[in-house]
What we know:
Strand order of the largest sheet: 3-2-4-1-5
CATH superfamily of the largest domain: Tetrapyrrole methylase, C-terminal domain
Strand content: 15-25%
Structural class: alpha/beta
Order of helices and strands: EHEHEHHEHEHEHEEEHEEHEH
Number of strands: 12
Low-confidence stretches: none
Number of helices: 10
Distance between the termini: 56 Å
Amino acid sequence: MNELVFIGLGLYDEKDISLRGLEALKESDMVFAEFYTSLMPGLSIRKLEEMIGKEVHVVSRRVLEEEDGQIIFEAAKKGKAAFLVQGDPMIATTHVDLRISAEKMGIKTRVIHGASVVSAVRGISGLQNYKFGKAVTIPFSEEGFVSETPYKVILENKKMGLHTMCYLDIKAEEQRYLVVNEALQTLLSLEKQKKEQVATPKTLVVGVARAGSPQPVVKAGYLEDVIEYDFGAPPHTLIVPGKLHFMEAEALITLADAPQEVMEMTE
């Protein structure tokens, strides 16, 4: 059967894959994986290969974006191919595009979901999922250029009282991962230009490191304090809260070491 199965690996290591995903891998003729859209700090490809009894072929960004994933499609045309992705396989638009292309070629596709940073970070912070607005990525500041998009998205969400989830830039092939402290510095730089009170020293922020791991870190507080906090190794995620429900404020105090004054910020 010509089939391409997109399988989510989860967030931390090879043990995060679902039983359904593991079963699909063992049944596949070829197994591919990409590791440039996210970071799984505890993942061992060798251990994963031992679990499924076959080789995992790691593909680069170039293979997927410049060569349109042809090597994966060719394998799927000959039998059953599996494509492993960190987190949930359909979060990245690159993977949605691959699935569309496969279906247009007459290749049957299937998705086996995995734990996603989207739900994990929101859940571990104690903030309510339905109160999040548009998400945004804070990129590295290259050669003095600072993207204004994150600032604008946070501003628009704040106007509606909504929280903003900020993904932090990853350059996996260079082993560079933006951390919360650098992201906050970027927002402070933009605040000096825009002066819209989006990122002041007293702005409430939440930093999350290694969500889904055995030892995640969640720290909420004023920007001037959180920017000095040591979150440890990546991956990191930043949340800029909007208006807080009293239960959200209590969660930030109890689960994320936020100052007691957060209770005074509730609706």
